[in-house]
Each structure stands twice: as C-alpha cells, then as structure tokens.
Amino acid sequence: MNKDNQQSVSFVWITAAIAVAVMLIILNYYALYIVPLLGAVCLIIIYWNFLVRVWRTLPRDAILIKNYSIYFIKIRIWNFLGCDTYAKIFKRNVDKHPNKIAFKHESSTWRFIEVEQFSNQIANYFKEQGLKRGEIVALYMESCPEYVCIWLGLSKIGVTVALINNNLRADALAHSIKVSNCSAVIIGKEQIDALAEIINTTTDDKLNDLFTKSNVYIKNYNDTALINTPISKAINLDSELKEVSKSAPETDISEGSSKDQMLYIYTSGTTGMPKAAIMTQSRYIYTQNHLNINNLFYI
C-alpha cells in the first residue's frame, strides 16, 4: 500500500471514529465506550500494514500450527506406547514379520530379521570397543543395506552417526569428518582412495590423531589391498563381526529416548563447506511417518 492510499484509509477510519463518537455522545454512552473505541481505531491505523500481512498469511500459519500440534501429539503417543526410538519401532516390525523382505539391493535381499541381527552385531561390537552414549561415529559409504544397518546398530547404543556424503573428496571430506567431532570413521571399500588422500595431505592435528589411532573401520574389503597404503592400520569390520553376538543390547535400547540425537545429515556442499543438520530420534520418526498415524509401525 503506497503512502497516498494509506493516508486515505487513515482518513476514512478517523472520520468513522468521529462519527461513532458523536453518536455515542448523543446516546449518552460515551463515558463507557468512546475511550476504548478510539484506542482500538488508533491501533488499527498504526498497525494496518501488519494486520493485513497477518490476515494474508493466516492460512499458511494455521496449517503450520496444525502440523506441529499433530507432531507433538504423536510424540506423546509414541512415548506412551514405548516406541520413542527408531530401534524400538523397528524391533516391533521384526517381531511381526521377521522373514519379510526389508531390502532388495542389486542381487541380494535382506529380511527384517537379518537387518536386526546385523545391526545388533554392530551395536555389540562398538560397545565392546568402548563407544558410549552421546559419542559420534562418521559413516562414509555408498548406499547399501549395510549402510542402514550400521547407523541403526549404532543408534541402539546411543551413538550419533554423522552421515558423510559419499561424493565428498579432499577438503570438503576432511571438513565434514572434522566438524563431526567423531570418535571413529566407518567407510566402504569404494571410499578407501578418498580417505587415503586426506590422510596423506591433512595437517590438522585433530584428524591426524583420529587416523593414527586405528579408529578407521572398513566394510567389504580385502586386507591385502591396503598393504603399504596410508590406511593400512584400518580395521576390517567384516572380520571383527564374525564372532560378535547377534542378540539385541536390550539395556541400551531401553535407555533410548525420543530426544536423543540420532544422525547428522550434511548439506551437499555445493555452495560452500557441508553443514550438518541434527536429526533427533523423534524428528527422524516423524519425517518417516509423513504425519500418517497409520504408518506408525511400518517405517
């Protein structure tokens, strides 16, 4: 609204207010109504533009308020049902249909029970390695069933997983690992060269300390391929998991809360260095359910 139009509107409101005031005086009600009425008119005139914006954005804001209300109601329902973490919900699915296919990837298929058992091995192994609730592990792998199993397993013991974009290289990769403040790094065989490159070139004390203490684990690779490479101290995760229990870490899972941090999800880094968004248990469950209460146990 331009200045002339605003002045015209103000003139109309003032004229209307005066007319109403005169009528109230004639009717002897001015003592009760004239002051608050004039005050209301003045406020409307002063905040006219703001009130117009509020009115125009009201439908959008109403939808937002509705969605957040549903979200908080769902969180309370999940807490009441004892399903306040993704691991607990997934376990209910496993109990319902253990042999149903959870993943199809290339020529392999993974049943729910297989995902559960492998993720339990991940949880038990890294708990044995001394990882504690609240610590962070960077996961740098191609998309595959094991990728999901690893972050699911780590979440069972309360470890937050930083999901490093698998296309990152050089400085962007080093930056993402560094800012995650991770205690360990898990990579796939496809990422060996990329990680070896930053191990060779980094001068950062924090990264050097991480890489020289055998805190790098590799999934799906051949030991002999790493001889005389910067990543030769990496631990073969496949070999380590062979004798690890497939039983669920029930105590750790029961201690989980909807407020726990679950994942760090990074931006692409196309307009600068990647930045991490924190995904809590409740937020992840919420996004997976798409505000549909019927999907509560079918994530």
UniProtKB/TrEMBL annotation:
GO terms for biological process: long-chain fatty acid import into cell. The chain crosses the membrane at residues 12-31, 37-55. GO terms for molecular function: ATP binding; long-chain fatty acid transmembrane transporter activity; long-chain fatty acid-CoA ligase activity. Keywords: ATP-binding, Ligase, Membrane, Nucleotide-binding, Transmembrane, Transmembrane helix. GO terms for cellular component: endoplasmic reticulum membrane; plasma membrane. The keyword Membrane applies. Coiled coil: none annotated. Residues 90-287 form the AMP-dependent synthetase/ligase domain. Gene3D superfamilies: N-terminal domain of ligase-like. The keyword ATP-binding applies. It catalyses: a very long-chain fatty acid + ATP + CoA = a very long-chain fatty acyl-CoA + AMP + diphosphate; tetracosanoate + ATP + CoA = tetracosanoyl-CoA + AMP + diphosphate. InterPro entries: AMP-binding_CS (IPR020845), AMP-dep_synth/lig_dom (IPR000873), ANL_N_sf (IPR042099). Belongs to the ATP-dependent AMP-binding enzyme family. This is Long-chain-fatty-acid--CoA ligase. The lineage of its organism: Eukaryota, Metazoa, Ecdysozoa, Arthropoda, Hexapoda.
